[in-house]
Amino acid sequence: MLGSSILRVVDFCNRYAWWVIAVGIALGLTSSAYTVRHFAVQTDVKDLFPRDLPWTQRAFEYMKTFPQPEMLVVLDAPTAELADRASTKLADALVDRTDRFRAVHQMQGGPFFERNGLLYLPMSELARLTDGLAQADPLLQTLAADPTLRGALSALSFGLMGVQYGQVQLDELTRPMAMASDTVQDALAGR
């Protein structure tokens, strides 16, 4: 009985093939139009849950206060080195707080920029930096050979030799000498 029913359906489709194709296309278009008009998925997170629930109200308040998913922390310090040190300390402390922060990045610091930072400088600034390092070579060699207070004072004596030979004005040494004085006073005071 099932076999004869299948044969009749196949025979009908064979005999009226163009009508069967037209009806199939019409049914497909009608069902597509109905689906487009009547079925929709709500993708806006704000409309998925009722707004009168306490936790959704807190979530909306949080989103209003912090509209962006990222937070940026700007550190200010007297010197770039102190700011870098504070930034590294803060990043190290926050990276362990996976319950609060998904990821922590140092935008202008961290191990990558410590190794590769010079690659991102403009050519003019890189040339200025290398010229300054070349001029400071005797000073850096003295500090590298003797990283004690004696070595630091010996390095400062290069500035006084520059004054003696007319290469540097005495006023130009005011800032380095004041910084050295502050450092020595801090070391003596135990800070």
List the helices and strands and how they pair.
Blueprint: H1 2-15, H2 17-38, H3 54-65, H4 80-95, H5 111-116, H6 123-135, H7 137-145, H8 149-164, H9 174-189
Helix pairs in contact: 7-8
Explain what the structure shows.
The protein is mainly alpha-helical. The protein is elongated and about 115 Å long. It folds into three domains: 2-40; 80-111, no CATH class; 121-189, no CATH class. It is built from nine helices and no strands. Helix 7 (137-145) runs antiparallel to helix 8 (149-164).
Characteristic terms for this protein:
191 residues; mainly alpha; single chain
Largest sheet: none
| Strand content bin | under 5%
Estimate the mean pLDDT confidence: 83
H-E string: HHHHHHHHH
Number of DSSP-assigned strands: 0
Residue share in helices? 55-70%
- By DSSP (H or I, 4+ residues per run), the number of helices equals 9
Structural class: mainly alpha
- How many discrete structural domains? 3
Rg from alpha-carbon coordinates: 37 Å
- Please give the alpha-carbon distance between the first and last residues: 101 Å
Shape: elongated
Q: Note poorly predicted spans.
A: none
